């Protein structure tokens, strides 16, 4: 079988350097190699590809049309390797903590606190991956192994090692012009009410506290997440339930306002801090956990 893979990644690095420098000699200086070694590796790459990549002159080399077409692909590929390596492994003086969190929390509440944590710990960087369902937090995929997790659910959903984190409060939110049109539960029947299917706390809890609220008369529309519900409400398509403090930043960004006509309630579920696999946290993950616990306590 004919071999199609390029045998040496270094051939590509040498080709890129020679193309940028337009000189095998300067490329050799840049790569800390000898000029003959640069010439030899470029020739090996050309023989492998079956095309001439450079036009040689005594003091200078220039890309052929084939070489010019090949260069951007090589540069993109090499850059991708470098940036991926940096993202996965960090720099020599930087340690990485991988945090897995519920998407809503990761998109709204977490960024401000992670920025403050990294500012207080310059040698640490937090990479964030997300999950939605309980199975997302129970199934650890290769290459996505978290050091710390923040999951959402009920106390019976998690092992005894899980620690309660943020408690949520539910508020009805809507665009300001629609809020002015609602004075009682009957007025809500004119609009769509976005309900998150996976949550145990929802519209029924709020409306059960409202006199004369008829759930059968309400127009509920099911969505997969609070983020989607808030996005739809921001377009004036109906009312949504905000889940403070996790959704606070998103509510503000969308220009939504609380509908003060109706009560605010405590959710029956909350966020939990988890150690993946139930084992002890690393020293750096423990620092992050302590920081987030303190930040969460300040919002209780």
How are the elements arranged and paired?
Elements (H helix, E strand, L loop, with lengths): L8 H13 L2 H8 L3 H15 L4 E3 L4 E3 L1 H25 L5 E8 H6 L1 H11 L3 E8 L2 H5 L9 E6 L9 E12 L1 H4 L5 H4 L3 E5 L6 H5 L11 E5 L2 H9 L3 E7 L3 H7 L2 E2 L6 E10 L8 H16 L2
Parallel strand pairs: 3-4, 3-5, 7-8, 7-9
Antiparallel strand pairs: 1-2, 5-11, 6-9, 6-10, 6-11
Describe the structure.
It is built from 13 helices and 11 strands. The protein has helices at residues 9-21, 24-31, 35-49, 65-89, 103-108, 110-120, 134-138, 176-179, 185-188, 203-207, 226-234, 248-254, 283-298, and strands at 54-56, 61-63, 95-102, 124-131, 148-153, 163-174, 192-196, 219-223, 238-244, 257-258, 265-274. It has 3 domains: 9-89, Winged helix-like DNA-binding domain superfamily/Winged helix DNA-binding domain (Arc Repressor Mutant, subunit A, Orthogonal Bundle), CATH 1.10.10.10; 95-166 and 271-298, D-Maltodextrin-Binding Protein, domain 2; 169-267, Periplasmic binding protein-like II (D-Maltodextrin-Binding Protein, domain 2), CATH 3.40.190.10. Strands 3, 4, 5, 6, 7, 8, 9, 10 and 11 form a 9-stranded mixed sheet that branches. Strands 1-2 form a two-stranded antiparallel ribbon. The protein is α/β, with parallel strands linked by helices. It is 43% helix and 23% strand. α10 links the parallel β7 and β8.
């Amino acid at each position: 079988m004919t071999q199609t893979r390029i045998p040496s990644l270094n051939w590509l690095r040498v080709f890129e350097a020679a193309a940028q420098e337009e000189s095998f000699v300067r490329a050799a200086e840049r790569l800390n190699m000898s000029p003959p070694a640069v010439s030899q590796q470029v020739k090996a790459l050309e023989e492998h590809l079956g095309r001439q990549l450079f036009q040689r002159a005594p003091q200078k080399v220039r890309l052929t049309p084939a070489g010019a077409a090949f260069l951007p692909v090589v540069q993109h590929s090499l850059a991708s390797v470098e940036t991926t390596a940096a993202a996965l492994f960090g720099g020599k003086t930087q340690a990485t903590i991988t945090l897995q969190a519920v998407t809503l929390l990761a998109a709204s509440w977490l960024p401000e606190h992670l920025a403050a944590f990294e500012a207080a710990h310059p040698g640490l960087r937090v990479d964030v991956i997300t999950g939605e369902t309980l199975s997302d937090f129970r199934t650890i995929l290769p290459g996505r192994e978290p050091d710390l997790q923040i999951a959402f659910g009920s106390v019976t959903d998690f092992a005894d090692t899980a620690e309660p984190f943020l408690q949520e409060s539910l508020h009805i939110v809507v665009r300001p012009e629609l809020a002015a049109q609602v004075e009682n539960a009957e007025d809500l029947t004119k609009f769509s009410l976005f309900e998150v299917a996976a949550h145990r706390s929802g519209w029924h809890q709020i409306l059960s506290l409202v006199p004369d609220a008829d759930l059968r008369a309400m127009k509920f529309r099911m969505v997969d997440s609070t983020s989607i519900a808030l996005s739809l409400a921001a377009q004036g398509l109906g009312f949504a339930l905000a889940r403070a403090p996790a959704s606070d930043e998103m509510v503000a960004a969308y220009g939504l306002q609380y509908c003060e006509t109706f009560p605010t309630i405590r959710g029956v579920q909350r966020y939990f801090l988890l150690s993946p696999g139930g084992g002890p946290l690393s020293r750096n993950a423990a620092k992050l956990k302590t920081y987030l616990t303190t930040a969460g306590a300040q919002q209780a």
